[in-house]
Every structure is written in structure tokens, then in C-alpha cells.
Amino acid sequence: MIQNKQVALKTAESLLQIKAIKLQPENPFTWASGWKSPIYCDNRLTLSFPTIRNFLKIEFAKQIEEIYGKPDYIAGVATGAIAIGVLVAEYMGVPFVYVRDKAKGHGRQNQVEGFFEPGSNVVVIEDLVSTGGSSLKAVTALKEAGARVLGMLAIFTYDFQVSRDSFEESGVRLNTLSDYHHLLELAEEQGSILPDQLDLLREWRIDPSNWGQ
């Protein structure tokens, strides 16, 4: 869900500008899952650009306040959202924890890292949502640790149907600063992609797992 259209377009423009998002309809990427994709998104690059990371931090904080008020904790999903999550927590003046993809196999065997008070209200920060599986796994870990998860905010989502269905079934609200729809809208306005490429990019999002096979 997009909270602010202008923020969505500005976020998409920033990601394209620093090549955090690359569009290659004619030379697709191969994801770790094996999916072929005409797009690749690496939001970690935003951390190297102070103006952009500050914009994201402030917009995250604004939207969290608008939607949920001030939470007790900000939680970042490891590893991509740890840094931006810390920046948001610092800006809002609230504690921060992060969630591993699985519990450590040694020491305290934590999956949620950092001091955490069970029963606290938590907003989760993600850098990217694709199918939603790893994001919702982090939510489950937080709930098992006793958190009251208010919702999740992410920089960008491909807005796959499987992701929408998963979040709806889990009862977790997802808001993003930008998404695939606004990215294509901006790219079309700027003339950075041709009409036939635009059709291909739209076609991919409908059935990404089988596209290019």
C-alpha cells in the first residue's frame, strides 16, 4: 500500500538515479530463486548517498507516525534493513532490534537481536519485499518473542499477487515508500523505456516465476 504518491515517485526516481534499480528487459537478470527478471533492485546502495538515505529515513518516520503513532521499537530485517532501520529508530528516538533469518546456532541462539521487552509495540522495516516470505518470517519471529507487530514498512515492493495474498492472510499491514507500478509510471514519463519494453515489464510481474522459461 502506498501512503503518498509523490513520495512513491520521488523514491523511484532516486533508486533509478543511483542504479539501485536496474531495468534490463532485453538482458534479464537471474535471481537466487532461479527466476528470470527484467529488473534488479539493490536498496543497500541508498546507504552510500547521504541525501537519499536521509530522505528515506525521514519519510519512513513520517509514515510510521501517521499510521501507527510512535512505536515502542523499530525492528529491521537482516541484513538489508538493519542500517536503514537504525537510522529510522535514531530519528524517532526509539529502541532498535533486528531479526535474523534464523536463530544463531551458538551462544544465546537469538533470532531477535538486541534488548527487547515482550508486549511492546513494534514496526518492522524492510528494504525490499518480493514474495513476502522472508519478511513475514521475521514478523513471526518477533511475535514468538512476544512483540505486538503493528505493521511493516519497506522501501520498495514488486507488488506480486503472491506477496499481497501472503500479507493479507497473515493480517500484517504493509506500506511501502514506492512500488513497481510507480516505477513504471516514472520510467514511462521520463521516456527511459520504450512501449514494447513497458509491455514486457508489465507481463513479467503477472507471472514472474514462469517468465522467460
Mean of all residue-level pLDDT scores: 92
Provide the helix percentage: 40-55%
Q: Could you state the order of secondary-structure elements as H and E?
A: HEEEEHEHEEEHEHEHH
- Figure out the total of helices: 7
CATH architecture verdict: 3-Layer(aba) Sandwich
- How far apart are the termini? 30 Å
SSE class: alpha/beta
- Cross-sheet strand order for the largest sheet: 7-6-5-8-9-10
The first-level CATH class name:
Alpha Beta
Biggest beta sheet summary: 6 strands, mixed
How many beta-strand segments? Answer: 10
Query: Low-confidence parts lasting 5 or more residues at pLDDT below 50?
Result: none
What is the gist of this entry?
The protein is α/β, with parallel strands linked by helices.
Notable features of this structure?
two-stranded antiparallel ribbon; globular; 6-stranded mixed β-sheet; 22% strand; alpha/beta; 213 residues; 7 helices; Rossmann fold
Question: How would you sum up this structure, described in words?
Answer:
With 213 residues, the protein is of the alpha/beta class. The chain has a single domain (5-206), classed as 3-Layer(aba) Sandwich (Rossmann fold), CATH 3.40.50.2020. The protein contains 7 helices and 10 strands. The chain has helices spanning 5-17, 50-68, 82-92, 133-144, 161-170, 180-190, 195-206; strands at residues 21-23, 29-30, 36-37, 39-41, 73-77, 96-99, 112-113, 121-129, 148-157, 174-179. The strands form 3 sheets. Strands 7-6-5-8-9-10 form a 6-stranded mixed beta sheet, with helices on both faces. Strands 1-4 form a two-stranded antiparallel sheet. The two termini are 30 Å apart.
